[in-house]
């Protein structure tokens, strides 16, 4: 569900479509393997971007990951103590998903996040005043979809624990991404668009801002930094799910006037490719909280929601 305010409801089941969901049958030599992924093995540009320190299997479909979240992560504020950015949690699950590719039956190319549900406890993520926060992820691999002997989609659910206490949960579905995004106007073709301040959208710095706003209030995705090390790592041709989720988060905070600390749930579903710039973001309200839609060439390419603490 989107707009979740508790850990349990945020990691709701993601619709899986019509393909066959095959059980995972790990090979015998992987039953007790402990993996220590490297930043290169999970496709990161630098060691500084790595959040997952180790990964081990604890059951046929269950894994545990040890994560370290640095206080000086690019997305975090610079004041003390720091409350970790929610996208750090989502990125941790994505990195685990990449590391787990070796445990899947012949993945069909690079599977990328197409659906994300994140829910936080009322207390929110742990605060950090030192160098880094140690976090344990308990992960379940579910709904592995196989076509012609190749994995074409799967889902991970993860619980986040710090000092033995669960503070968040996440569900992520990964599948083959859309190859091309519809044409969308670049920022130069959107007259009168202005960038909000980083503080207005709950960002730590100006390069983290992903939105520009028009004089009538229309918002469009227009990353200030097209080489952003987190949202646009590797300079992708289309906007990744994590960047779309962050754009929805920023749009909600900008329009609602709420602080970033009020967020207790985030969700996004991709239906097609989203161009790097020019897609329009529209907000609506619902009984579960603010909803956002991302439109490209007049069609909905993504939808999502944001859960907020009561004002």
UniProtKB/TrEMBL annotation:
Composition bias type Basic and acidic residues, residue spans: 19-31
One matching Pfam family: AfsA
InterPro entries the record matches: AfsA_hotdog_dom
Annotated region described as Disordered, given as residue ranges: 1-31
Location of the A-factor biosynthesis hotdog domain: 48-105
Protein name: A-factor biosynthesis hotdog domain-containing protein
